[in-house]
Amino acid sequence: RLETPRHSEDYCLRPREHFRIPNNPGIGQQTWHPPPTIYRVPSKDRRTVGNRKQAVEQYLRHFVSYQQDDWAPLLATAEFAYNNNNHTSTGVSPFKANYGFNPSYSGIPSAGQCVPAVVEQLRQLAEVQDELKHCLEAAQEAMKSQFDRGVRKTPEWNSGDKVWLDGRNISTTRPSRKLEHRWLGPFPISSRISTSAYKLTLPLSMQGVHPVFHVSVLRKHKPNEIAHRQRRTPEPVTVNGGDEWEVDGILDSRRRGRTTQYLVSWRGFGPAENSWEPEANLKNSRDLLAEFNSKFPEAAARHQR
Fold it and tell me: What local confidence, expressed as pLDDT, does residue 144 receive?
């Protein structure tokens, strides 16, 4: 139960203490006009604190002296102005949300002017808080709907499925990153690590790359976009009693100790099957080696270890 005399004293005899109204005669009633829209609380929580600070700074900017040495006494006044203004998400001011009404800054009334209508005041407060609850729920639902529009649903893939890998964070030996391929692969999925991470089977040319990737850098590979089209894997050619695959081109070279390795693209295979091969494995591709070395004589020196 609420004691009427005590609440009459709180609401009528001590409003300045109750609402923390500063006793500053230098600032008049015009201070409490509705502030500009900058006082509105933004919809995103991470920006709320910054904009509150910005609102208080703008308020103080209108009243501080040229030397800006008298702003501290104005902080309580700025706080009152901010809390007495309607906020965007709730539609009401913090004062009204807490007490059921917006206090005025028209001076302290005498005790004879006060009407201790505590019951009516509490009824209004309950109505305001109930309305405030619905406003916040509607605002939160609107924020969630806006956020969900830009969120991609987490895809689900199985082992053996092929995916493209975003190549922006993958270092290669190519001279210019700006002209590098946007997507690498496709690579088969080796296993599912979690709901948002997959382990890929990477080629030997990417030995130094950690094979686990987040789904945000992966994209589903869609093979056979033309109905009934089948891609045939080339058969090896028998040379001197051994199986060999035809070299399509030499892409790059690097030094590993005293050995020179060449990045080879194989005819009939995709970029995912490119591999680094020592010069000894390319005895039957002397013409391609000579052509590459004449065009890029410094390539191996750029990637020496």
Answer: 79
